[in-house]
Amino acid sequence: MVLLFSLLFLIFHARSVLSSCAHGTFLHPRAAGGIGELPNFDYGPVRGPTNWHSISRENILCAVGLQQSPINLNGRIPIEPVGFVRSSIPRQDILFENLGTTAEVVLNGTTLVRGAGEFRLKQFHFHTPSEHRILGQHFPVELHLVHTSVANPSQIAVIALFFQLTSRGGFSDLERIITHVPRISSPGQTVGLRGFDFGILSRTISSMPMFRYVGSLTTPPCTEGVTFLVGTQPLFMNVEIFNLLKGVTRFNSRFIQADIPGRQNVLLSGLHNIGLTNQQCRRLVSGRELIGKPGRRNGNNRGGRKGKNRQKEVVSTIASGNSTQVVTSTVQQTVTSSNLVTETTRNDQVTTTISSVVASQTAMEDYQRDRDDDRRDDRRDDDDRRDDDDRRDDDDRRDDDDRRDDDDRRDDDRQRQEQDQGRQTVQTTANTATASAAFIQRRNYMPFGRQA
């Protein structure tokens, strides 16, 4: 028992370090020399999402917050029309880095949100698989573009985009970056990349309807008040590019927190499921009380008898070499209950039938077909423009040839006329000479007189 208390003490007093979702914001400014200290959380069973609140007291909202992200996006979440968000990301040099929990791109850009003003793009990073879901359906990749408000830098906005896999060409703006993943294979590695164009990404964001809600960072410290703008349509990523990305990000997705913002956090729901009151839940996750602490009353339970029954902790010690692992069955029950509640919540959130999910998949396939058709149409238009240019060039060449032919004909005509005039002059002269000779002969003309 002393060992368990010591372990909890160390966990609750561990200090917080870099959060991948908040990197570059006021919560975790970028270090002067680069990444700085790597995150001290992960997505495993010990330091993963079910235990983020125990890593540091700063992470308490990860367990008790009422506006936690991600959520399941359904008909109760408003959708903003095209034009609500306008993005401008210029061509620029970028920094590609491995944070240990995700792959991040540091860059600059501007986003205008209707009614909220201007935001500065600080970085974007990847989650595999997606954290948010649409009608209970998740996607292989979710991209988070993290912004801070120009007027109030403590206000954070995140644009989230989903990616579906394809065997054909995907989203070129991002795929060209991901091909450099082998250069940042180890946590803490960074690489500078020059001259990247994000025009397609900017146009895609500006032309897509967006789910909008107020939630939280999806990594510690799970800060709330974050505006999420989530794309309603998935984009596409080549499966080979996805495998490259997954080699760095691995599994880095937080589980669904609630069906809609404002509902109880799934961790608290799991603790309630094993019979704890709100006060006990909050004391437990804040490290001030253990479940069924001896000598304390639990609910209407005098003397703590039922509390003792509930708090009977089966601490099993598993020896492996020189290491000892302490496993508390109560914590295991809590995690199991949390998982059950998560599944129940997820089932409750899916308000549509299986046909709706099939329709959603069909819509995505239609979107891909339409995009391919648009690309084919663009290629045909380009071919038609080139053909028109070639025809115009041919016409210009023919016109030039015709002008040259006309000039040549005029020159030939002029030469013929000059030759004809020369021949006529010669002929006239000859005729005159003949006529003169004939005249002299007829008159028998002798210029010096007749001689005897």
UniProtKB/TrEMBL annotation:
One of its GO terms (molecular function) is zinc ion binding. Residues 39-294 form the Alpha-carbonic anhydrase domain. Residues 384-410 have a biased composition (Acidic residues). It comes from the Eukaryota. Residues 366-383, 411-421 have a biased composition (Basic and acidic residues). InterPro entries: Alpha_CA_prokaryot-like, CA_dom, CA_dom_sf, Carbonic_anhydrase_a-class, Carbonic_anhydrase_a-class_CS. Pfam families: Carb_anhydrase. Residues 1-19 form the signal peptide. Keywords: Lyase, Metal-binding, Signal, Zinc. It catalyses: hydrogencarbonate + H(+) = CO2 + H2O. Residues 290-312, 353-438 are annotated as: Disordered. SUPFAM superfamilies: Carbonic anhydrase (SSF51069). Residues 353-363 have a biased composition (Polar residues). Reversible hydration of carbon dioxide. This is Carbonic anhydrase. It comes from Coccidioides immitis (strain RS).
